[in-house]
Specification:
Shape: globular
Bound molecules: adenosine-5'-triphosphate, magnesium ion
Distance between the termini: 43 Å
Radius of gyration: 21 Å
Helix content: 25-40%
Number of strands: 10
């Protein structure tokens, strides 16, 4: 489905993403689980976090506690965690907005320092959770142009990028509008367009679909997937919407109380009820149906996408399979 013809309900959101996401089976490993795909996870990681700790002033506990993490070029990573788990704090370390209490963050093998922070921000673009922290210019057009202008790009190139980015998020026609007169969702799209216009190698999106309607949400996820597929842009996305995670993420990180509790494929993470319960997360709705079937004695595996669910149900029907005690 094209961007100009976006889906119209949340079911179609997942259908669209289903079509675009490439599924991979990653090996299970010891906790914290490591996604393992040797064809892509070799060489220097595009992002590396080493023993990262963060503490906000006047707080006793660390908001991040010894986080270790490697992200390779082209990966699509979802970061899950309850409110206050540390997702936004982690993200703000990924291009030097926050400074570590201890530990370090490396971009393409280079530690972020005061000297290279500007370059780091061109490589790693962050879309903040709250667009009011990001969208500050008097007009939409000026806001989206801010990053490319700061990168020193020629005027025509800036104009092309702004036009392209606004088209991508479906905001063409709103160029002259004042961002503070836009809706929350529209402001979020302006923030996303501003990052897209910089064409970073990594895009980190903090709750990109929160507050967006299903159609807009699907458009945003589709745009993001397209950036990954066609331009190889690495994605890190935090979200509370676990239902869409299996459609765009090939890897999930679970944060809980500032610690990295797990790092694995969607199938691994969503087949670990104890982990999910501990991290105050839930299964995707489609998986809950399989959990219920299991509890009723059916011999089914938990499936996390509509497509896999259909296949599993068809398998069950074809076997006419019911375990003892079920009439
Ligand atoms: N500017 C700040 N000053 C002090 N404490 C902060 C600040 N920002 C976050 N915290 C605290 O750090 C912890 C992690 O917060 P963070 O915003 O990273 O969580 P989160 O996982 O992004 O949560 P949410 O899902 O609600 O966005 C929380 O306990 C929070 O109260
Ligand atoms: Mg947050």
């Amino acid at each position: 489905m094209s961007i100009s013809n976006p889906p119209h309900n949340s079911e179609e959101v997942t259908n669209t993403l289903k079509e675009t996401a490439g599924r991979r089976n990653l090996k299970k490993d010891a906790s914290p689980k490591k996604a393992d795909n040797p064809s892509e996870r070799i060489g220097t990681p595009i992002l590396e976090v080493k023993d990262l700790c963060h503490r906000y002033p006047h707080l006793e506990a660390n908001a991040l506690d010894k986080i270790n993490l490697k992200v390779y070029g082209g990966e699509r990573v979802a970061v899950l965690g309850a409110n206050g788990a540390g997702k936004s704090t982690l993200f703000k370390h990924l291009n030097g907005i926050l400074r570590p209490l201890s530990g370090e963050v490396l971009i393409k093998g280079e530690k972020i320092t005061k000297k290279n922070v500007r370059m780091c921000r061109e490589t790693v673009g962050i879309v903040f959770q709250d667009p009011d922290d990001q969208v500050l210019a008097p007009s939409v057009e000026e806001d989206v142009a801010f990053g490319p202008i700061n990168m020193g790009l020629p005027r025509e190139e800036v104009e092309t990028r702004v036009k392209e980015a606004l088209k991508m998020v479906g905001l063409t026609g709103l160029e002259e509008r004042a961002p503070h007169h836009l809706s929350g969702g529209q402001k979020k799209l302006v923030a996303i367009a501003g990052i897209l216009a910089m064409r970073p190698e990594v895009i980190v999106l903090d709750e990109p679909t929160a507050g967006l309607d299903p159609l807009t949400s699907s458009r945003v996820l589709e745009v993001i997937m397209k950036m990954n597929r066609e331009l190889g842009i690495t994605l890190l996305i935090s979200t509370h919407n676990v239902d869409v995670v299996p459609y765009f993420a090939e890897r999930i990180l679970v944060l809980h109380h500032g610690k990295l509790e797990a790092d694995g494929s969607p199938n691994e993470i969503f087949n670990d009820p104890e982990l999910l319960r501990k991290a105050h997360l839930r299964l995707p709705r489609v998986a809950e149906v399989f959990e219920m079937l299991q509890q009723e004695g059916f011999d089914v595996k938990i499936q996390i996408t509509a497509e896999a669910a259909r296949d599993e149900i068809l398998r069950l029907i074809s076997l006419g399979q019911k375990t003892t005690g079920i009439e």
